[in-house]
UniProtKB/TrEMBL annotation:
It comes from Lutimonas vermicola. Residues 52-186 form the Tll0287-like domain. Pfam families: Tll0287-like. InterPro entries: Tll0287-like_dom. It comes from the Bacteria. This is DUF3365 domain-containing protein.
Length: 189
């Protein structure tokens, strides 16, 4: 066996150590991912609802603008993971999908087209880190900020949003659409 062959075989062997998770591990990451994304979502949506009540749309958008990312980061730090909300149509360019996330978003879109129900999934990334992805669907209450202009989304709301997010792509959604995903990266098992 020449050196190249040996090197190739050796690297395949190394790579194969971490190319899959057992069903039990996958299930455990799904559960953890579910708990983390739900509690982060609840924290975001609870504060958003309070802001809407106290200060209306202006305050709610200000909240999303200044607090959504730090709040998500705080949750990430407390769980010792990386967490992100991302989408094919982002409002904040800082939430743009990575290559892996874009693949998942397109898979979810394709499943919707085929009528396959969306489920959270766990995949190992190139570095062997488990990643959890869960669909985020559009609900009725999201439409005042993510709906169609001049329908659920008023001109006034749109201009407040555009003043903070000149590159906003996240409008025109309908109830039940895929708004995006939760993406959680765990460290290597
Ligand atoms: C008061 C207005 C408002 C409402 C209501 C609202 N959003 Fe948003 N949403 C925003 C703003 C502003 C951002 C940008 C946050 C940031 O800077 O990270 C955003 C960002 C997002 C993102 C991150 C990806 C991106 O586009 O940057 C997702 C996912 C999202 N919203 C989903 C939802 C869902 C699902 C609902 C309903 C349950 C909802 N939003 C309700 C204003 C709103």
């Amino acid at each position: 066996m020449n050196q190249l062959m040996f090197f190739l075989l050796f690297s395949m062997l190394l790579a194969s150590c971490n190319t899959s998770l057992s069903d039990k591990e996958t299930q455990a990451y799904k559960e953890k991912g579910g708990i983390i994304s739900k509690s982060t979502g609840a924290e975001l949506s609870g504060t958003l609802t309070n802001k809407m009540k106290s200060g209306g749309l202006v305050e709610a958008v200000e909240f999303c603008n200044t607090a959504a990312l730090p709040l998500t980061q705080k949750m990430a730090d407390s769980f010792g993971i990386e967490i992100k909300r991302t989408s094919l149509k982002t409002r904040n360019p800082l939430n743009k999908p990575s290559e892996n996330e874009e693949i998942i978003l397109r898979e979810f879109e394709a499943n919707i087209e085929k009528g396959i129900p969306l489920e959270p999934i766990v995949r190992l990334d190139q570095h062997g880190n488990p990643n959890y992805y869960a669909p985020v669907l559009v609900e009725k209450k999201c439409l005042i900020c993510h709906g169609t202009l001049d329908q659920e989304l008023s001109r006034a709301a749109d201009s407040i949003i555009k003043s903070h997010y000149p590159n906003d792509l996240a409008t025109g959604f309908k109830e039940g659409d895929l708004r995006g995903i939760w993406s959680i990266a765990f460290s290597k098992p």
